[in-house]
Amino acid sequence: MICTHQNAALSDGWVDDCVVECPLHMSRFDLRTGAVDAPPAELPVRVHLAEVVGGEVWVTLSEQAPNLPPGVR
Description:
The chain is mainly β. It has no helices and six strands. The protein has a four-stranded antiparallel sheet, with no helix packed on it. A two-stranded antiparallel ribbon has the order 5-6.
């Protein structure tokens, strides 16, 4: 997942409860909804549905296009 503010990998950030914090400028995103929880990001990140079924994790990929940071294609 890439921060929508600038091109930073959110996998390098920090997770607390259901929020991930960008390591670059500390934007925060709700992992359940993708909504911005703290600026400077203004656009949400794309999220995918994940659920545990019979002890296995099932992921349904979102069909939405990701909100990419400026200059990233």
